[in-house]
Sequence to fold (223 residues):
Amino acid sequence: MAGPPSRRAVVSSGPMPVTSYSRAADRLRVAQIISTTAAEGPGQRFAIWVQGCPLRCRGCCNPEMLPWRGGRWLAVPELARRVVGTPGISGVTLLGGEPAAQAAACASLLRRVRGAGLSTMVFTGYRVDELEAAGDPALAALLGGTDLLIDGRYERSAPDGERPLIGSRNQTPHVLGAAGGPLLTALIGGARRLELRLGRGGLLLSGCPDAVDRLLQPGEGAP
Ligand code: SF4
Fold:
């Protein structure tokens, strides 16, 4: 006779359901924007950090962007016009926060900027199979509007010290659109960059997560 099921047998390793904070397609809750940066992907890019992430990776370098409340709502058509009208950029990068938690708005934004000939790059804490398994048209549109997707939770115990902009070794680039291949080649062959900006809100750091992490380590002080 079979005994009771082992504890291991009832643990599921399947995809995690994707949590949506907003299903609106016409407005996006945004934490931060840098309109021209060389630190968030190949070339000069318009970087948008969305506000709110339902995941809680240990060592997340943007903890202030995790709560849903915070940042501010921006109208997607106006934001898209601002991206397209920014001189000298080759594309847009979405980070967070979690773009998949506002999939409809992110998809609408990507569709508009890609329609103007710009490339699109998205960082998500979900794995691509989790996004696909959700069977959500908004998530499908988000993937459909993305040229290069970097997926996976940030795992502090497995830092990636080699690939620019990729925080941990489990995170994987996926070429999803026509511009994705050249973007990936340029990303992997490029330098690991860290940008520091002094703005009205104080010092703003962007670029390689481990570099930011190391910079924020407490010093040893005077000998
Ligand atoms: S998915 Fe990204 S933003 Fe969300 S908790 Fe993890 S590292 Fe932070």
Observations:
- Residues 1-12 have pLDDT under 50 and may be disordered.
- The first strand starts at residue 27 and ends at 37.
- Residues 53, 55-57, 60, 62, 66, 96-98, 125, 153-154 surround iron/sulfur cluster (CB under 6 Å).
